[in-house]
Design brief:
Radius of gyration of chain B: 33 Å
Largest sheet of chain A: 8 strands, mixed
CATH topology of one domain in chain B: Chloramphenicol Acetyltransferase
Distance between the termini of chain A: 30 Å
Shape of chain A: globular
Number of strands of chain A: 11
Largest sheet of chain B: 6 strands, mixed
CATH superfamily of one domain in chain B: Chloramphenicol acetyltransferase-like domain
Order of helices and strands of chain A: EHEEHEEEHEEEEHE
Structural class of chain B: alpha+beta
Radius of gyration of chain A: 17 Å
Strand content of chain B: 15-25%
CATH class of one domain in chain B: Alpha Beta
Oligomer: heterodimer
Shape of chain B: elongated
Strand order of the largest sheet of chain B: 9-18-17-16-12-15
């Protein structure tokens, strides 16, 4: 069956606003009022803690964070603490997995595969690490993944370090793992954000078997 | 009793960690309401309840890992005898009396209240109220009731099956406040007596302080934000009315010949192509013919210029559940009736499932709206800007008409109207367009589709 997915690049958006948008889209998706969505966004500095995360992996006090201009959210995704900020390509797939495969682990593996394949276009060899979800390059994490699923509709997603300033990860133990982080720029890739997103869209489209459509501007629909 | 199982969330998953219960034992849960959350490898998943009822037993604690398909909880269906007992024994016993325990109570208890309270004892009328006093009560309603000391047995439910909704308790609360403010001292009319009996165990003092209740008024309004689509439709409609000088001309079109052609081919086409042949593609075909002769109907206005479109891109209005959308058949004049029907079926199906691509709802040069399929005889639609005309097709009905030689015959008649922008199109021009449309449809003799 032909599936459609609307791709939206939200550009720079506050974490809270993007989260609210996700929740709206998840509601719409559950009611089948919209097709699958793949959102791309870049957040201002923010730390987010998954519901099952441990605050001890946050290494700075809230005052320190405030002074550094970093906001903090406790949210409903899987995974521990992570950082988002400028230069990072954050992707939020709002997919109804019933139209793909009802397999939560399969879903995470598929995201990893799409990232690995997209990185390969830029000459980066990403790989999985047993027991540590995400995409890794030479033992350093380049892409973090954390997902929430409700009635088979997904939210949250992945954060790919493109030109991220990795210093900000010093405030946390990312995902509770004491392993280094890296970025595409740190690996010597200078491709612009738009090109990376285009590659991600290509591989998501192939792996999740959807056809890309532009979001319908509703002003153009009505009589 | 329904067993709640740890679901299989994928082929490779054999166990999962239950990280959070959204409900406590003794709480009500609706079917499909999130009941608990599990965590598997960076994925948090909300698991909906398989049944409605009261969460009677929780067998797995938060943060324990269990195998798929093992039982993690049990839900007692509403009305089950076991439920009230289990609930009363549960940790939330101090809650105000819930609907469950009541039904069995009245019979044995009936003799007790009269001596206990000096109230005229009319226990007879009570059962009607009590047999299914509230139906399921949401936690929110229960909380509002608890915080405001409302006896839910006295609240009239207006929800499905007499269920008490949030607005019901709010209305009750408002009525109670109004009654308290009103200068009504000790004047207990006979009405409040039955409710006084209803509260049953432990509620006696509360019953006494409750004011006499006029029938709790249902909420008079409900406020709901417009959907995005609704807002855009609203904007566009008003903008169009402001932009164009709308005029409508109605013509009577005899569709009998088309009906015959359609009847002859319907079965075959259904069999061969899998869709039904309607009147609409014939009308669309005739519109294209008429536009060739009267191209102003296919134009648009740009400032003081007239833009003539060489393509005929027909918009077809499709009704959605909560709105409408006008997908466009491009180069409609290049299609035959069958091709038009195919396009209409395809576009309207995808419109309803929100699967249209953006360019499929853009670039229309003329629109057709077929409100006749909803029984309307004729209408005066709003022009789809920046177009200058829209055809409104009325219901096709068998009608007695006077034909040649003053005979009366039964014909399939449609009142079809053209709404046009009088800034650009004059009445005579619009009527000539309609005459052409009428001529094409009425003289349809060919079996060519």
């Amino acid at each position: 069956m032909l599936k459609f997915c609307e791709i939206r690049d939200l550009g720079r958006m506050e974490y809270g606003a993007a989260w609210e948008l996700q929740r709206q889209l998840v509601r719409d998706r559950k009611e089948a009022r919209i097709p699958d969505q793949l959102l791309f966004v870049e957040h201002p500095h923010v730390l987010t803690l998954g519901r099952n995360g441990r605050r001890k992996n946050l290494l700075a006090s809230e005052e320190t964070l405030k002074a550094a201009g970093i906001s903090f959210y406790e949210i409903d995704r899987g995974g521990d603490i992570t950082y988002h900020g400028p230069g990072q390509i954050v992707g939020y797939p709002i997919f109804d997995l019933r139209a793909w495969r009802r397999d939560v682990a399969g879903y995470v593996r598929a995201i990893e595969q799409a990232i690995i394949d997209a990185l390969a276009e830029f000459g980066i060899v990403g790989e999985r690490s047993q027991g540590a979800t995400g995409v890794w390059v030479n033992g350093a994490k380049v892409c973090a993944i954390g997902v929430h699923i409700s009635r088979w509709v997904t939210s949250h997603g992945f954060a790919l370090n493109h030109t991220t300033d990795l210093n900000y990860f010093k405030y946390i133990i990312p995902c509770g793992l004491t392993r280094p982080v890296t970025s595409m720029a740190g690996l010597g890739v200078t491709a612009p954000r738009a090109d990376v997103i285009a590659a991600l869209v290509r591989h998501f489209s192939r792996i999740f078997e959807f056809e890309v459509v532009e979001p319908v501007l509703q002003s153009e629909q009505a009589i | 009793m329904t067993d709640v199982m740890m679901p299989q969330m994928g082929e490779s998953i054999t166990e999962a960690t239950l990280t959070r219960w959204f409900k406590k034992p003794g709480e009500r849960v609706e079917r499909d309401e999130p009941l608990f959350e599990i965590s598997t490898d960076k994925v948090d998943t909300e698991i909906p309840s398989p049944a409605a009822g009261v969460l009677s037993e929780v067998l797995v604690e938060e943060n324990s890992t269990v195998a798929v398909n093992s039982v993690v909880a049990r839900i007692a269906e509403e009305g089950a005898k076991a439920a009230p007992a289990g609930k009363a024994a549960g940790p939330v016993a101090p809650e105000p009396p819930a609907p469950g325990p009541k039904p069995p109570a009245p019979a044995p208890q009936a003799p007790v209240p009269p001596p206990a309270t000096p109230v005229p004892p009319p226990p007879a009328p009570e059962p009607t109220e009590a047999e299914e006093p509230q139906g399921p009560i949401s936690p929110l309603v229960r909380r509002i009731a608890r915080e405001n000391k409302i006896d839910l047995a006295q609240v009239k439910g207006t929800g499905t099956g007499g269920r008490i909704t949030k607005s019901d308790v709010e209305a009750y609360l408002a009525a109670r406040k109004a009654a308290a403010a009103a200068p009504t001292p000790a004047a207990p009319p006979p009405a409040p007596a039955p409710p006084a009996a209803a509260p049953g165990p432990a509620a006696a003092p509360q019953g006494a302080e409750l004011p006499p209740l006029p029938m709790p008024a249902a909420a008079k309004i409900r406020v709901e934000p417009m959907s995005n689509m609704r807002q855009k439709i609203a904007e566009h409609m008003v903008m169009s009315k402001r932009t164009s000088a709308h005029v409508t001309t109605i013509h009577k079109i005899d569709m009998t010949n088309v009906a015959k052609v359609r009847a002859r081919h319907k079965e075959l086409i259904k069999e061969r192509y899998g869709f039904s042949l309607t009147y609409l593609p014939f009308i669309a075909r005739a519109v294209c013919e008429a536009i060739r002769d009267y191209p102003l109907c296919n134009a648009s206005i740009d400032g003081t210029n007239i833009i003539y479109h060489n393509e005929i891109n027909l918009g077809i209005a499709v009704a959605l559940d909560n709105g409408l959308i006008v997908p466009v058949i491009r180069n409609a004049d290049e299609r035959n009736v069958l091709g038009l029907q195919h396009a209409i079926v395809d576009l309207s199906t995808r419109a309803r499932s929100r699967q249209l691509k953006p360019d499929e709802v853009q670039g229309g040069t003329f629109s057709i709206t077929n409100f006749g399929s909803f029984g309307s005889l004729f209408g005066t639609p709003i022009i789809n800007q920046p177009q200058v005309a829209i055809l409104g097709v009325g219901a096709i009905e068998k009608t007695p008409v006077v034909v040649e030689n003053d005979a009366i015959a039964i014909r399939s008649i449609s009142l079809t109207g053209l709404t046009f922008d009088h800034r650009l199109i004059d009445g005579a021009y619009a009527d000539r367009f309609m005459q052409k449309l009428k001529a094409v449809l009425e003289s349809w003799s060919e079996d060519i589709l």
